[in-house]
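Incident log, structure service

09:12 report received: a user says their structure output differs between two submissions of the same chain.
09:20 pulled the input from the user's history:
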Amino acid sequence: MRLWMMLIPLLLLEISTTAAQPETQPKVQYPCSVVLLPVMDMPNTQGAALITKVKKPYTADPISPLRERQSVGIYADWMPDPSSFGDYDQYEGLVQIPGAISWRFKLSAVYTKTSGFFGGQLWAGKTEEISMDLPVNTRVEVRLFNSKTKETGRAIAQNTLQGCK
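09:34 re-ran on a clean worker, output below:
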């Protein structure tokens, strides 16, 4: 009986870690980029995501060893004002491996002399903390975000890494 009590947690751990593994997909070849397309009819709204490997130090110490990470940068142009979709004041980037894990990061408005003059705004941001290789079914999205309530809205532009070149 004692042996079974010791084995059951190990068996459950094996089942849960096996179930959490994403299905096998081809991995992205680095570096690559993909166009982010609008999810609804919005004139001019598009973006791009750059996926690459970066080497980052573990600490700020100049002799800190380097660690390799995947970086996903998003450039989204001709974006409507987030408030035009409701109670939102920002956009955020989302990188998601379906059924496994996701990363969220803030996009910042980039102000230029012509920003908003013709109705579109430029937003950009990146994450450099992805420690696993990204499969081609990874989704990259630009989503609405409310910075006060921390509530995320729907995707405005998106694509998978299937066509990442």
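09:41 both user submissions now match this output. Likely a transient worker issue. Closing.
09:42 reviewer note: Residues 98 and 138 are 7 Å apart (CA to CA). Residues 1-22 have pLDDT under 50 and may be disordered.
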